[in-house]
Design a protein that fits this description.
Length: 245
């Protein structure tokens, strides 16, 4: 046990570190609370007795914060700036992306690039992308993990469980994916489009879905034009796919 603590001084488990790697491997940049909401949604219903919301969030995210600390010690994760509310952003290093590829069952060349520097200006667009992923995933709390919570907490968790299911798991998602007009998936050439979210969840009858997130900085006409003319690659050759007029 002492050796384990020396290797991972924050005491995180393999499962917790794997959860963090999977989420950051997909989102590239996230807060510890977003990681917790995706991988352990039941924790969002605990610690309701804390004196302030910030104390409650601190208690809910403590386990994942420890996992991030241990991943940083091994050179797999790092801090990547702050969002306007003050929460610290986290991202993976190149070595961390490689570790995440094993967790997600993807080729290293499909993982994209580290998000280093993306959070220096608040990462407003990545945060909206993360919110969209959360809304599409709809992580459901495990009620068995909340058996000893007060009745009103159980009722809130039950209400979340009773909502319609989301799409897939975090492994069903990829973000900031290049759709190469030339080159390859791992080394796209110039001129191709890039989509904010790609979802492959055949178990939910969604074999392939592209999602574009807009921060309302572009006009509706420009956004429609960008969405109208997407390039996708099929069987090693470039093919243009047009959306209906």
């Amino acid at each position: 046990m002492a050796g384990k603590r020396e290797e991972n001084p924050a005491g995180s488990s393999n499962n917790l570190r794997g959860d963090v790697l999977r989420v950051l491997g997909v989102l590239k940049l996230a807060t510890v609370e977003q990681i917790q909401q995706i991988t352990a949604p039941h924790l969002s219903y605990r610690h309701t007795d804390k004196p302030t919301p910030s104390k409650g969030k601190q208690a809910r995210t403590a386990s994942h914060l420890g996992a991030l600390s241990d991943l940083r010690k091994h050179g797999l994760a790092e801090n990547g700036g702050k969002i306007p509310g003050g929460d610290t952003l986290r991202n993976l290093t190149p070595m961390g992306l490689k570790a995440a590829s094993y967790e997600l069952g993807r080729l290293v060349g499909e993982m994209g690039n580290p998000a280093r520097g993306a959070g220096r200006t608040g990462a407003s667009h990545p945060m909206v992308v993360n919110d969209a992923v959360l809304a599409l995933l709809r992580p459901k709390p495990d009620l068995a993990q909340l058996a000893n919570e007060p009745a009103h907490v159980l009722a809130a968790a039950q209400a979340a469980v009773d909502t319609p299911d989301g799409l897939g798991t975090i492994a069903s998602y990829a973000t900031e994916v290049a759709l190469p007009a030339t080159g390859t998936w791992s080394n796209p050439g110039r001129g191709g489009a890039q989509t904010d979210i790609v979802i492959t969840s055949p178990e939910d009858w969604v074999p392939l879905l592209f999602v574009e997130i807009d921060n309302c900085y572009e006009s509706a006409q420009v956004l429609a034009s960008n969405a109208h003319d997407l390039w996708i690659s099929s069987s090693g050759s470039a093919r243009r796919a047009y959306l209906p007029e």
